[in-house]
């Protein structure tokens, strides 16, 4: 029997609003995924450490503060440095369309902006998670 997809939902930086992250966390859980929520105001180092310790398949980042171009690439860089580049990293929040190509160039697989149905996030994860190296 295959284990459920494990997702770390994280709020990097000083962003103090987590309603959207909690909505996503609940939707992923209801879809049968195991969800770990880090809580507010996490550093990139804390997020990467939690992702590795929890052996997650996905890191789902949520940000509203505007620091996505700094924090998201730092997280993917740290994951790569720790040999965890097989973890799917997605992002969401108030992210301008013009910033999305930059984020994708820096290892964020997909960006989900406000109004995206939770079903789209669930289906994207199911279609794109890399489970080959995991047991």
UniProtKB/TrEMBL annotation:
InterPro entries xrefs: Acid_CoA_mut_C (IPR006159), Cobalamin-bd (IPR006158), Cobalamin-bd_sf (IPR036724)
SUPFAM superfamilies assigned to the protein according to its UniProt record, in alphabetical order: Cobalamin (vitamin B12)-binding domain
Keywords, in A-Z order: Cobalamin, Cobalt, Isomerase, Metal-binding
Protein name, entry field: Methylmalonyl-CoA mutase
Ranges of residues in domain B12-binding: 4-132
Pfam families reported in the protein's UniProt record: B12-binding (PF02310)
Gene3D superfamilies: Cobalamin-binding domain
Cofactor(s), names only, from the UniProt record: adenosylcob(III)alamin
PANTHER family referenced in this protein's UniProt entry, alphabetically: COENZYME B12-DEPENDENT MUTASE, METHYLMALONYL-COA MUTASE, MITOCHONDRIAL-RELATED
Molecular function GO terms recorded: cobalamin binding; isomerase activity; metal ion binding
């Amino acid at each position: 029997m295959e284990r459920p997809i494990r997702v770390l939902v994280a709020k990097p930086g000083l962003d103090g609003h987590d309603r959207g992250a909690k909505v996503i966390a609940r939707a992923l859980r209801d879809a049968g995924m195991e969800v770990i929520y880090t809580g507010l105001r996490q550093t990139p180092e804390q997020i990467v450490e939690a992702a590795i310790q929890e052996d997650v398949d996905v890191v789902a980042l949520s940000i509203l503060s505007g620091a996505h171009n700094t924090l998201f690439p730092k997280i993917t860089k740290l994951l790569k440095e720790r040999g965890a580049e097989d973890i799917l990293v997605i992002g969401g929040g108030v992210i301008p369309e013009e910033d999305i190509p930059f984020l994708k160039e820096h290892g964020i697989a997909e960006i989900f902006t406000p109004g995206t149905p939770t079903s789209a996030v669930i289906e994207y994860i199911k279609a794109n998670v890399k489970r080959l190296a995991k047991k």
